[in-house]
Design brief:
The protein is an alpha+beta fold. The chain contains four helices and eight strands; from the N terminus they run H-H-E-H-E-E-E-E-E-E-H-E. The chain has a domain of 118 residues: Protein of unknown function DUF881 (Alpha-Beta Plaits, 2-Layer Sandwich).
């Protein structure tokens, strides 16, 4: 009777050990599959980023070529002050010239000494800040030197690389992001302070917003319209 009990216990133990070993193999298999998928996705993301950067370089070259050609004709052929002023307004609007004016400088630190941040600044934070600035009437905006225009994309590549206009941006000085905006300083400051600074500070980031005369660089990515076409009005 005692031997039978031992055999029963040994059988149950063997089944349990077998189950655990099987479970371990299955878990390891799932981990390997997950790791493979992760590596494949990282490879795809790197490929997409490289493609975007190559495309951005081509657009920059095309933009410079067109801008130089336009400037040549502008200087030689356009002598109408109204047309020149209108052209400059359009270039300010589409972000293709550097602009300067009263505005604000917003500096955000999400890493560094004495800063404890569980979740660093991400694409949602940046898009929200840009939308707030637009709602506040900002006439020109940049993020770490990248001009924000109608076609600007703000996406994450990998785990910690932010792309603005398909260009990787890094923290200024290794710790900070800098957002510049031109517009009514009081309105911009009020919107950023009440709507954006507080949640970022609550998340542990350091945020400084200053009134300044800021210079915002031109957009150098160029515009390429493959599908959108002009609608020609018929008489």
């Amino acid at each position: 009777m005692f031997n039978k009990h031992i055999i029963t216990v040994a059988t149950i133990a063997a089944v349990a050990i077998g189950f655990l070993i099987s479970l371990q193999f299955q878990t390891q298999k799932e981990v390997n599959i997950a790791e493979q998928i992760k590596n494949e996705r990282l490879t795809q993301m790197k490929s997409v980023m490289n493609t975007l950067q190559d495309r951005n370089k081509l657009l920059q070259d095309e933009y410079k070529k067109i801008t130089d050609e336009l400037e040549k004709h502008r200087n030689k052929e356009i002598d109408n002050p109204f047309l020149i002023a209108r052209l400059d307004q359009l270039r300010i609007s589409d972000g293709t010239i550097t602009v300067k004016g009263p505005g604000v400088r917003m500096t955000i630190q999400d890493s560094g000494q004495d800063i404890q941040v569980l979740f660093p600044l991400n694409t949602d934070d940046l898009r929200r800040i840009i939308n707030t600035l637009r709602f506040a009437g900002a006439e020109a905006i940049s993020i770490n030197g990248q001009r924000v225009v109608s076609t600007t994309s703000i996406v994450m590549s990998g785990t910690n690389t932010l792309l603005v206009n398909s260009v990787p941006i890094s923290r200024i000085g290794g710790t900070s992001y800098e957002i510049l905006a031109i517009g009514d300083q009081e309105v911009l400051l009020d919107y950023l302070t009440k709507l954006e600074a507080l949640p970022l500070k609550q998340a542990g980031m350091k945020v400084d917003i200053l009134r300044e005369i800021v210079t915002i660089p031109s957009y150098k990515g160029g515009y390429n319209f493959e599908y959108a076409k002009e609608v020609v009005k018929k008489d």
